[in-house]
């Protein structure tokens, strides 16, 4: 074995006449400019070495997980297409030996080799579309050549990842091995790859494209479709050049800049200045208090992550109802093929119901999801403190209440924090982690460790009414009644929101959640909002009763505008002497989104949110703010609101 190239992140050695080129830039071999320079140098050394073949492989359990996202759009030689061209120009066969992730530019690099061998655990994919991009180093063209246009479109326009075995079946890799992937690649050297020609099925391709475009937001999917059409229709080099043009243009387009902002913001949000994450307690068993809407979802989220759960209710009836609803949800998931029947049973089995607080003593963390009432929560925390000892980490899922006040009644308030899940808690990605005034580092780190275990996107926030998300939501919704009284119709407001990119408008959302939630909250605070209060008083509580801001036909979820609501609006407007006028989408958005952003700025000034980008993470992952617009704060910065 003779070394033919050594640099910081790349080494190449000659073994039995074959050059093995190791890529070693921790943690994930991201293709930065400096790294590409070193790979280019190594390829030149391989060319001059007299080797009869080259194996390209990654050290550290990953092949190449993609490009360096902070450098996207910079064109500095050698570019990734340059590197791939230089591999193609070698007068020897090349094999990529993949162990771990080959994603984005990493997969394109592998596709630039003559053949590919992958270990069983390897994962392949083109995540570019999730960043508003199309692959830009031959991915669309080579994947289409290897797998056919329909498969390439599915992979590239969805960004979904495939296992090595699936990659083999689709034609992306030539062999899957259990053992030493480099040895397997060396053994393959000189073999001619077996390729199946996949005929172009235009009808199937166009149907698939249409279905993807119908669901797409932003322009990235359309670019993927266009690149693959080129791959089919144009000569290889022209298709490559066209793809590259599209990639570079997309890199500088607002959509990709916004999506990259959110991507980086989510990673940043997982870090807290000065916090040692290793202080986290080990987590195996979680206590959940309350088997209502949220308790059920939280218990399921924990069971899904392999944690044991002790679920506590106040009486046998409520407990049984909660456990039955959980079992039914798992059965429904199994019926839809999302998990096997056996796995569903395992997960149900992880959740043990109890009526005794003492049964939570073996837990590592207890999350309270009882009624939203300070007295209930204070009594409960005192009970937990007495029964479970002063060291148990206690979390509250409160939506609005003061976590400092909840913590004040226990012996060691340092162990109390807020874990604000979103409904349904086993589905929604966001977790607001509320650091109360006295929460200590170990407790905060434990909350963050739980979030990571549950695969949530978490944001650490401070204590205030409604934290980051709900406080801004109230600001966003503050003008809604006034807008309606001044002449905007509910369906026009909802349409303006959808047009903006929200999955639904505020009135449809309130109908879905139930109008009684805010009604109860207003009553508890001695507040009135005449218009929604009138609807609630008339029994219009939302979808669950078939009547809310809209009318719903029996069993249907489609909102139908209702003249009775118009009549209520008209009556209250007349009482107040308001003459209705036409209100356009721009005004609707300005009068709702403006206050939302202003509240975000206040949260930053008050230190409740640590970073503007944290607020964006909350809104994209918890409230459906369109990801391709980057979150409310980013969007406002771009649009100068
Ligand atoms: P829910 O009314 O559906 O469920 C509450 C459950 O807690 C009930 O089953 C009740 O019997 C039980 N309970 C009450 N006191 C208890 C006690 N001492 N011990 C054990 N169980 C007890 O309410 P929910 O919607 O699940 O909300 C629970 C909490 O989560 C509230 O603080 C709420 O603000 C918060 N939250 C709700 C949502 C949401 O969308 N529903 C979202 C985020 C946070």
Any chance you could write out the topology, listing elements then pairs?
Blueprint (H helix, E strand, L loop, with lengths): L1 E5 L3 E6 L2 E6 L9 H15 L5 E6 L21 H9 L5 E5 L2 E3 L1 H7 L3 E5 L3 E3 L13 H9 L1 H10 L2 E3 H7 L4 E3 L3 H8 L13 H14 L4 H14 L2 H16 L2 H16 L15 E5 L3 H12 L3 E5 L3 H20 L5 H10 E4 L10 E4 L5 H15 L4 E4 L6 H5 L8 E6 L8 E5 L6 H13 L3 E5 L7 H9 L2 H7 L3 H11 L5 H8 L2 H9 L5 H8 L25 H13 L9 H21 L6 H11 L9 H8 L2
Helix pairs in contact: 1-2, 4-5, 4-9, 5-8, 5-9, 9-10, 11-26, 12-13, 13-14, 18-25, 20-25, 23-24
Bound molecules: nicotinamide-adenine-dinucleotide.
Overall description:
- The chain has 641 residues and is of the alpha/beta class.
- It folds into 3 domains: 2-252, 2-enoyl-CoA Hydratase, Chain A, domain 1 (Alpha-Beta Complex), CATH 3.90.226.10; 277-466, NAD(P)-binding Rossmann-like Domain (Rossmann fold); 471-590, Orthogonal Bundle (N-(1-d-carboxylethyl)-l-norvaline Dehydrogenase, domain 2), CATH 1.10.1040.
- The chain is built from 27 helices and 18 strands.
- The strands form 3 sheets. It has an 8-stranded mixed sheet, sandwiched between helices. The chain has a 7-stranded mixed sheet with strand order 1-2-3-4-5-7-10, sandwiched between helices.
- Strand 17, helix 17 and strand 18 form a beta-alpha-beta unit.
- The mean pLDDT is 96.
């Amino acid at each position: 074995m003779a070394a033919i190239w050594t640099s910081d992140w790349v080494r190449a050695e000659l073994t039995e006449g074959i050059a093995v080129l190791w890529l070693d830039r921790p943690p994930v071999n991201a293709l930065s400019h400096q790294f590409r320079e070193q790979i280019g140098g190594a390829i030149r050394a391989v060319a001059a070495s007299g080797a009869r073949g080259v194996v390209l492989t990654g050290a550290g359990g990953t092949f190449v997980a993609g490009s360096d996202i902070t450098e996207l759009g910079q064109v500095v030689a050698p570019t990734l297409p340059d590197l791939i061209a230089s591999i193609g120009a070698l007068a020897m066969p090349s094999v990529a030996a993949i162990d771990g992730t080959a994603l984005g530019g990493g997969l394109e690099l592998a596709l630039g080799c003559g053949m590919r061998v992958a270990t069983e655990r390897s994962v392949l994919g083109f995540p570019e579309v999730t960043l508003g991009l199309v692959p830009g180093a031959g991915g669309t063209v080579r994947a289409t050549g290897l797998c056919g246009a329909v498969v390439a479109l599915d992979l590239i326009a969805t960004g979904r990842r495939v296992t090595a075995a699936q990659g083999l079946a689709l034609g992306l890799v030539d062999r899957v091995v259990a053992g030493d992937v480099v040895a397997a690649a060396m053994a393959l050297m000189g073999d001619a790859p077996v390729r199946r020609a996949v005929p172009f099925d235009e009808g199937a391709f166009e149907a698939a494209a249409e279905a993807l475009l119908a669901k797409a937001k932003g322009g990235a999917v359309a670019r993927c479709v266009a690149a693959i059409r080129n791959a089919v229709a144009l000569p290889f080099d022209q298709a490559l050049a066209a793809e590259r043009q599209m990639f570079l243009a997309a890199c500088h387009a607002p959509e990709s800049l916004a999506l990259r902002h959110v991507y980086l913001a989510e990673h940043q949000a997982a870090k807290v200045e000065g916090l040692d994450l290793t202080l986290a307690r080990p987590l195996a068993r979680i206590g959940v208090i309350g088997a209502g809407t949220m308790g059920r979802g939280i218990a399921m989220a924990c069971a899904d992550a392999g944690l044991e759960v002790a679920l506590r209710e106040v009486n046998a009836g409520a407990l049984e109802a909660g456990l039955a609803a959980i079992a039914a949800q798992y059965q429904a998931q199994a019926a839809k093929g999302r998990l096997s029947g056996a796995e569903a049973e395992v997960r149900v089995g992880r959740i043990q119901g109890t009526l005794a607080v003492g049964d939570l003593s073996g837990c590592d963390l207890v999350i309270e999801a009882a009624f939203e009432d300070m007295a209930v929560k204070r009594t409960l925390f005192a009970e937990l403190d007495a029964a479970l000892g002063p060291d148990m980490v206690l979390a509250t899922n409160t939506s609005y209440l003061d976590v400092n006040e909840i913590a004040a009644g226990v012996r060691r308030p340092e162990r109390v924090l807020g874990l604000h899940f979103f409904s349904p808690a086993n589905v929604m990605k966001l977790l607001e982690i509320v650091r109360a005034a006295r929460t200590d580092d170990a407790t905060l780190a434990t909350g963050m460790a739980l979030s990571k275990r549950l695969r949530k996107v978490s944001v650490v926030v401070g204590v205030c009414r409604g934290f980051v998300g709900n406080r801004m939501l109230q600001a966003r919704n503050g003008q809604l009644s006034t807008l309606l009284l001044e002449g905007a119709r509910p369906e026009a407001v909802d349409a303006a929101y959808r047009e903006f990119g929200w999955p639904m408008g505020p009135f449809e959302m309130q109908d879905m959640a139930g109008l009684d939630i805010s009604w109860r909250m207003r009553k508890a605070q001695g507040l009135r909002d005449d218009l929604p209060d009138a609807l609630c008083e008339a029994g219009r509580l939302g979808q669950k009763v078939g009547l809310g801001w809209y009318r719903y036909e029996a069993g249907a979820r489609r909102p139908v505008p209702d003249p009775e609501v118009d009549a209520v609006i008209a009556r209250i407007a007349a009482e107040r002497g308001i003459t209705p006028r036409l209100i356009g989408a721009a005004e609707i958005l300005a009068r709702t989104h403006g206050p939302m952003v202003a509240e975000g700025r206040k949260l930053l000034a008050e230190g409740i949110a640590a970073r503007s980008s944290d607020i964006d993470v909350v809104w994209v992952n918890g409230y459906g703010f369109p990801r391709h617009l980057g979150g409310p704060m980013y969007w406002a910065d771009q649009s100068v609101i």
